Amino acid sequence: MMKVGRNDPCPCGSGKKFKKCHLGREDELFQEGRSAFPDEMGKKITSLPEVAYGRSREMIQALDMESLTGTRFGVRFIDLHAYEALNVTDERLSNRKKGGSGGVMVNIQKTATSDPDHIYVAITPTISDSALIHELAHVFDYLGGSKLMPGLAKPLSFELGIPIEHIEHPYEFGYWLKYLQEQFQVELDADDTIVGYLYEQGMLIKGADITGQNGLALKTRSDEILRFLSGNSAEIDALICERTGYIGSRIKKEE
């Protein structure tokens, strides 16, 4: 598999460095016939059986993708453990607990040749509503928001020394998370409650600022988020203390 470094010339031929050109928009390279992923990988992924875990079928059938995002992409859900078994390269898979619950939006470059009409989301049978709309928010953000592909933020996060969450969850992601939460009456887990809170306070970084790759501006905004979280820690703790994923629930302390 070909790998393009952040400071390498962009494969599109613009003459710019990859980080200043198509980083975060690799799907456009694929559409131009420059995919770094072999066709065999895509065929293995798109051949996996479609699943309907949790409320996945209900949610996707209730959402008009074209009117909401301006695109005609569909969404197909596949089993996450079966996806893992293919040994595909995915940074987020290496970071998650084996056998755990959750989901991952599959990089569209991996499947665009074998199935150009769908975005694939790998989920577990026990996926929660919160985790489900989290992945759908990534899909909607990619199609009709920041256009950023989740799972590609680690190099930029490492280079700038800022939390990866600040890049993985831009303002536009927060919009779609809020929309889906209200649409399906979902109680968010602790982490997404914080994302939703930051969105409502206008604190999330906008996608254009992330794709602009202005290191100083991004570092400044990230520091502002951290100061805001610190200054409002009591209010945030009250919001998340009984949510799934919160460690040290106050209920246990009071019992």
Work out the helix count. 16
Strand content: 5-15%
Q: What is the strand arrangement across the widest sheet?
A: 1-3-2
Percent range for helical residues?
Answer: 40-55%
Structural class: mainly alpha
Q: What's the total number of strands?
A: 3
Taking the alpha carbons of the first and last residues, their distance comes to 54 Å
Gyration radius, rounded: 18 Å
Helix/strand order, N-terminal first: HHHHEHHEHEHHHHHHHHH
Low-confidence stretches: 30-35, 249-255
Biggest sheet character: 3 strands, mixed
Silhouette: globular
What is the average per-residue confidence, as pLDDT, rounded to a whole number? 84
Provide a quick synopsis of the model.
This protein is mainly α.
Task: Describe the fold and architecture.
The protein is mostly helical and 255 residues long. The chain contains 16 helices and 3 strands.
List key phrases describing it.
mainly alpha, 255 residues, globular, 6% strand, single chain, disordered C terminus, three-stranded mixed sheet
Describe the SSE topology:
Blueprint: H1 26-31, H2 39-46, H3 56-62, H4 65-69, E1 74-79, H5 80-85, H6 91-95, E2 103-105, H7 108-111, E3 118-123, H8 129-144, H9 154-160, H10 165-168, H11 171-184, H12 190-200, H13 207-211, H14 215-231, H15 233-240, H16 250-254
Helix pairs in contact: 8-11, 11-12
